[in-house]
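Work Package 4 report. The design task specified in the project plan requires that, given a folded chain encoded as structure tokens, an amino acid be chosen for each position. We show below one input record used in the internal validation round.
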């Protein structure tokens, strides 16, 4: 998996509608389902606290 979500995630939901593969899993913090993630990186730009990064 190329992207991870850190503990700084606010669970604000900004990334969920941006993910074309529906790979974001709600929780605290959110996680990325590596089986669904296509490594597109769209979620990175949508995060207001920069909690999503490339692993």
């Amino acid at each position: 998996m190329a992207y991870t979500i850190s503990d700084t995630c606010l669970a604000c939901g900004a990334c969920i509608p941006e993910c074309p593969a529906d790979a974001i899993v709600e929780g605290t913090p959110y996680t990325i389902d590596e089986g669904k993630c296509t490594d597109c990186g769209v979620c990175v730009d949508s995060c207001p606290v920069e909690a999503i990064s490339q692993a």
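The two ends are 7 Å apart (CA to CA). Validation will be extended to a larger panel in the next phase.
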